[in-house]
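example protein:
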Amino acid sequence: MSKEIWKSLIDEVQVAVMELQNVSDAVDEAAAARLGINRTDMRCMGCVFALGPMTAGELAVAARLSPGAATIAIDRLEKAGYAQRVRDMRDRRQVRVVPTPQAEQVAKEIWGQLSEEDEAGLAHHTEEELVLIRDFLKATVSRHARQADRIRHGKVLSEGTGASAPRPENLRP
């Protein structure tokens, strides 16, 4: 593969990631408006759906919020009817945040069709390709989370401190 083709493909992937972020943001914005909640509450709700019932502290970490902000978001989600605090049956000292049946219903209405379409879009891929896609997305999430932390903490990368991409001649055919 020539250096120009390799660089062009890298650029196309980066643009596709940006486009995915933008359209995901638009979906989240529309869903939050439809549900009558704000984007932070929406993020918390998404964490509970994706990761399962969790304590307020776990939710704060997962949603990248302060413990106080997570507690306020849980209060708002409870008031809206989308979450409830449930005492953990194994450790009665712990309380877990769980989605309500109403939240499960609206999640199905809002994201059900998209989930089915995404699954159909992935169905033609081999196991190896799915592993590659999964690993790329997980690594991208991790890099973007680190960047959010750097921005949040006022840390700006100096030129030349980022990891450099592999050279095309070092790639496997």
